[in-house]
Design brief:
heterodimer; A: about 750 residues; alpha+beta; Aldehyde Oxidoreductase, domain 4; 5-stranded mixed β-sheet; 17 helices; about 25% helix; disordered N terminus; B: about 350 residues; Enolase-like, domain 1; 4-stranded antiparallel β-sheet; 12 strands; globular; binds flavin-adenine dinucleotide
Chain lengths: ~750, ~350
């Protein structure tokens, strides 16, 4: 049934569990190695697949010779476009929950090559080593065609996408006349920003293990952010019924968006398993992790105009991003600039350029992580032109309503983020002037930026079973990609029913569980958490009713709102002596177990009248070696407003990880393409740089108080993404403060800093 | 990875016997029977199908894991001692601090625990094109062309290049050894010989597939350090893209012998600039007798980099090298920041 959120204020005075820094309930399994990942499920006779990747970026396969590979003892089969079975015909069958407009990529479909590292063959063998060896023996000849992978060369070759992907909103129409206001403004900046493509590269590489049942059913261990998404894809593509396919994914070793779409290793493993009627595993190599979605390369222009007192008069934000030849990947890059500050003249523009690369893919805070830093560096530059403190400039143009929609924010404690972040950091002592601090051979700089991300919610279902032993099991087909889903859902359920954490088990990552959307966009606490709360509310209601029927009930005919659940007991509000154990209530009524299933849906009506967002203020200290131009990020304070924080420990971990990634995005991460080959060249973790421990120093996280009755029944917004947004800008601004050098081309590597310092 | 046979050597002689069939190969890098030590480089390259030995001879049990005093007052480092044990050895730290620092600037703690001194010298370039068999590379496939020359060449060489190859040698340890004038001790079918470190690695010329002068039927048994370790005035400075676990953009091992404020002897070896650790003995000699000042070091840097040549993405390295050299000498000479 669809549950109305009962007792909307139940959680206003959170009790035992919500808000507590509970350690991960799955932590022990993870650190002892008992948690198994998709590539770790073994059965006797398991076959292994290794993918052969295209060496060209565009063209045709003219000949593919698998005979040498097939001669190797232990190589079982080689699949190519020439011998694959007939599969789903229509594009819609290949679409998944996160697919943008277009024709999804179909592995081994035909002889066409549409990007470098495209899978062109799958070698199946008795061991991984044999499969990999066999893959080296597959001979592929190509007829190459001219390709385009250079966004800069194709920046004029663009089109304006529509509402081409779920969750995407094209920029709103212009407000006022931004170009005129810019021309008339007292003070202006007009700047170009570039951002390199980034590949997700979670620690765990994508893998799928398909266990082939005697009856032909498939149990698929997949690395995914949505077990149901993978299940639907498999059923549609291979024309199987849902009862034949179960996708299981209890643990995911990081994903960051890379698991939002079924990746080609899943297709490959299912193809081989169904054709050979055997269990098969296919795992990507690290270089092959550069063969699919990525954060797209972007070129942006931000122009700001202000009057002398700092009041914004004009905002122009334009972006060009890469997409593939076959899909329109879109993300919200520029809209934030119409939302973050009060301004009457705003023009936002977003375009795509088609390149011969794989379709990009959501990556942690997609769009915002790219667009907001451009705005926030521009704001810093404007502050310098105005001679104004960068925090002051932001406060001057602060808005409590969303200028894009005209709606008030359901809550927005960004002011508190500025205040508390600045205080913790010690910002007030800062001299505006660049190169004003040094120690030894290092120039010291302080920079700040604001961040913003959505606070979305989707529909989700959850099931709860309360047993006579007092143990509660709650389940939903969501995922835990390391974010702490297991833990926070356990807390929410334990809170509603007043149970100790140890008595609650939460199950996820299984397509046989109640429906949940893909885990992305920081909406899992909001969507699934609301469903968990709803279903536990229903169990509560059942218990109150049963208690009322109990002979000599200690609670009499108390109404639901008069019953307090704590420590496995129900008691009368205001009279704790009137108390009965939950299991007692069940036993007395002869109830073996209470089972409920609920669906939670967003407060659509309330939502339509509000704007939603999580907000942040980031303060950073960098030390730049004056001789060498190398940067150390010695201090970061990230102040976050994200509604109620269900678990400050797991939430803090999310922000820490995101700040570290923001450092990578700002200073290190970059896919280097050889445009002659149309290929990423630094495709391993030795040369594709992400921050290492030695790069990470002091990071301080603040969650400011933020009360929100509108966003969802929990008042919680989700913190998976907000932490990265704005970090690159804070670093770029700090580097400017240290050195006087502006770098608007991310990542800010030593060569770019030195170029400015000469 | 291709299939290969595996054997374990129980003595230097048996290892040499096992690789005797290699003699036709132009150098150790091109051998078909490969010695394997820590495996941190060789196994990666085999998985990437860049190296395709038919046989691996495991030498990890050979008794070459000690550090011994030499008759000349130096130290002899066993070829199979790990990089970590070498760097943390008290004698190395006290007498050759620059070497210890160089080793610890390389790779990561985990890798250094596996990596051996012999393997470190023979690690192969990290050029992207060398690693990617879908692209041309004269080092991997002679005659196929150099992908990096007009490709992604941010990490490539600025000195001693040829049109056939602009790869750099990635080792940090070797740079310090070059500055110290170490000697590589090797054993082959004809017995032992010594190769001065400066002649061990080579420039690419038109045979970039040949990395070193170590013959394919020889094994490294140790590395000898001369008595002079420049402990008082030396350092190793590495500029890189992140604080650890990144190869050098530019590194410098510098050493000074000072007589008050006057330079008696100067050494400089550069990493990240060429196909081998780069020394310029003329520029070093010119420093002798000069005052240990910034001006002298600047002139030295200019002389060393006189013929440096940049490509599309790595031109910044020339100026970075100048800064690294200057800074390293300043530190070695104990000059305060200006
Ligand atoms: C991600 C990564 C980052 C790294 N970063 C750095 C860095 O910053 N700086 C740096 O200097 N290094 C770095 N390294 C390289 C590392 O130092 C080398 O891989 C290591 O030193 C090789 O030693 P090994 O014993 O493992 O050699 P192996 O891989 O076992 O062998 C390498 C080669 O040496 C030969 N060989 C080994 N021992 C002998 C011997 N006794 N006689 C003759 N031939 C022999 C082998 O046949 C093989 O050809 C990095 C490596 C990785 C994987």
């Amino acid at each position: 049934m669809i549950a109305k959120p009962t007792f909307p204020d139940l959680l206003h005075a959170p009790g035992a569990q919500i808000g507590k820094p509970v350690s991960r309930v799955d932590g022990r399994l993870k650190v002892t190695g008992a948690a198994k990942y998709a590539g770790e499920f073994n059965v006797p006779g398991l076959l292994h697949g290794y993918i052969v990747s295209s060496t060209i970026a565009k063209g045709r396969i003219t000949r593919i010779d698998t005979s040498a590979a097939l001669k190797v003892p232990g190589v079982v089969q080689v699949f190519t476009h020439e011998n694959r079975p007939s599969l789903a015909w229509f594009d819609r069958k290949w679409k998944d929950q996160d697919a943008p407009k277009g024709s999804p990529f179909r592995p081994l479909h035909d002889d066409r090559i549409v990007h470098s590292l495209q899978p062109v063959a799958l070698v199946i063998a008795e061991s991984l080593e044999l499969a990999r060896y066999g893959a080296r023996l597959v001979e592929v000849e190509y007829e190459a065609e001219p390709h385009q992978t250079d966004l800069h060369a194709n920046r004029e070759n663009t089109f304006t996408p529509g509402k081409d992907k779920g969750g995407f909103e094209p920029p709103p129409p212009p407000r006022g006349d931004a170009d005129k206001a810019l021309a008339d403004a007292d003070v202006t900046v007009d700047l170009e920003f570039t951002q390199a493509a980034e590949y997700h590269n979670p620690m765990e590489m994508h893998a799928s293990t398909v266990l082939y049942g005697e009856d032909g059913t498939l149990t698929v261990h997949d690395k995914t952010q949505g077990a149901l998404n993978s299940q639907t894809y498999i059923c549609n593509v291979f024309n199987l019924s849902k009862s034949q396919v179960r996708v299981v994914s209890p643990f995911v070793g990081g994903a960051f968006g890379s698991g939002l779409r079924p990746q080609h290793q899943l297709f490959m493993a299912v193809l081989a398993a169904t054709e050979l009627k055997r269990s098969v595993r296919v795992e990507l190599s690290r270089p092959q992790m550069f063969s699919f979605g990525h954060r797209p390369e972007t070129i942006q222009r931000v122009a700001l105009g202000a009057s002398k007192d700092g009041t914004l008069q004009a905002i122009i934000h334009e972006a060009v991003q890469e997409s593939s030849q076959f899909e329109n990947y879109v993300e919200i890059v520029v809209n934030w600039s119409g939302q973050q500050y009060r301004c009457d003249n705003v023009r936002l523009d977003y375009k795509l350029s088609r390149l011969d690369l794989h379709t990009p893919l959501d990556q942690r805070a997609p769009g915002a992580a790219t667009g907001v830093p451009a705005l926030e560096i521009a704001m810093d530059e404007l502050a310098y032109k105005l001679g104004m403190d960068p925090v002051e400039l932001r406060l001057k143009n602060y808005t409590d309503i969303d200028p894009n929609s005209g709606n008030p924010f359901s809550s927005k404690e960004l002011r508190a983020c500025f205040r508390q972040g600045a205080e913790r950091f010690g910002w007030s002592g800062r001299k505006l002037e660049p190169r004003s601090m040094r120690e030894g051979r290092e120039l010291i700089g302080w920079g700040m930026a604001a961040g913003v991300w959505d606070a979305m919610q989707g529909q989700a279902n959850a099931r709860a079973v309360l047993g006579l032993d007092g143990k509660l099991t709650v389940a939903s087909a969501t995922a835990d990609i390391g974010t702490g889903t297991y833990t926070v859902m356990t807390q929410i359920a334990a809170e509603v029913l007043g149970l100790p954490i140890e008595d609650v088990t939460f199950n996820l990552g299984d397509s046989s569980l109640p429906m949940a959307p893909i885990e992305g966009g920081s909406w899992t606490v909001s969507s699934v958490g609301s469903a968990v709360k709803a279903v536990c509310d229903m169990v509560r209601g059942r218990l109150v009713k049963l208690a009322g029927k109990m002979e000599g009930s200690p609670l009499g005919d108390a109404a639901e709102e008069d019953v307090v659940f704590a420590d496995g007991h129900m008691s009368l509000r205001g009279d704790p002596s009137k108390r009965v154990a939950i299991v007692e209530v069940m036993r007395a009524s002869g109830t073996q177990s209470i089972e409920e299933e609920a669906r939670s849906i967003p407060y659509y009506l309330k939502r339509s009248k509000h704007a939603f967002g999580t907000h942040s203020a980031i303060f950073a200290e960098v030390r730049v070696d004056e001789d060498l131009g190398t940067v150390r990020v010695t201090r970061v304070v990230s102040a976050i407003a994200a509604g109620r924080i269900i678990n400050p420990k797991t939430a803090r971990s999310q922000i820490l990880g995101a700040v570290v990634w923001g450092m990578g995005m700002g200073l290190e991460e970059e896919a280097m393409l050889d445009h002659r080959l149309g290929r990423v060249m630094n495709h391993d973790l030795a040369e594709y740089h992400v921050p290492v421990n030695a790069d990470v120093h002091d990071i301080d996280v603040i969650f400011v108080e933020e009360h929100d009755d509108v966003v969802n029944p929990l008042g919680a917004k989700g913190v998976g993404e907000i932490g990265i947004v704005g970090v690159p800008a804070a670093l770029s601004n700090a580097i400017f403060h240290a050195t006087g050098v502006r770098v608007r081309d991310l990542p800010i590597t030593v060569d770019k800093i030195r170029k400015g310092m000469r | 990875m291709r299939s290969f046979s595996y054997g374990r050597a129980d003595s230097v002689q048996s290892a040499v016997k096992d690789i005797a069939g290699n003699q036709a190969a132009p150098d150790a890098a091109n051998a078909t029977v490969k010695l394997v030590a820590g495996g941190t480089n060789l196994l990666d390259l085999m998985k990437a199908d860049v190296m395709r030995p038919v046989r691996l001879v495991d030498i990890t049990r050979l008794p070459l894991k000690t550090i011994e005093e030499t008759a000349e007052g130096g130290l002899r480092l066993g070829a199979l001692m790990t990089n970590a044990d070498t760097a943390y050895d008290e004698r190395v730290q006290a007498r050759y601090p620059m070497l210890s620092k160089a080793i610890l600037a390389g790779a990561s703690a985990q890798l250094r625990n596996m990596a051996t001194n012999g393997g470190n010298l023979l690690q192969r370039t990290r050029c992207y094109y060398f690693y990617d068999t879908a692209t041309p590379c004269n080092k991997r496939e002679p005659g196929s062309g150099c992908g990096a020359l007009h490709g992604v060449n941010r990490i490539h060489a600025i000195l001693g290049v040829s049109e056939h190859c602009i790869a750099v040698h990635p080792s940090d340890m070797a740079v310090a050894l070059a500055a110290l004038d170490a000697t590589v001790r090797v054993t082959g079918p004809g017995g032992e010989r010594a190769i001065p470190i400066g002649e061990f690695h080579r420039l690419p010329g038109d045979t970039p597939h040949i990395d070193t002068t170590l013959r394919a039927d020889e094994i490294i048994t140790g590395i000898e350090l001369p008595a002079q370790g420049f402990a008082a005035h030396s350092t190793y400075l590495k500029a890189r893209d992140r604080a650890s676990y990144a190869f050098a953009l530019i590194s410098a091992a510098v050493a000074l012998e000072l007589d008050g404020g006057t330079i008696r002897e100067a050494r400089l070896a550069l990493g990240g600039v060429a196909h081998k650790p780069w020394r310029d003995r003329a520029a070093e000699a010119a420093l002798a007798g000069q005052p240990a000042t910034r001006d002298s070091f600047r002139a030295m840097a200019d002389a060393v980099l006189r013929d440096a040549k940049g490509y599309e993405h790595n031109s910044f390295k020339i100026d970075l090298a100048r800064s690294v050299i200057l800074r390293a000498f300043e530190e070695a000479a104990g000059l305060e920041p200006s």
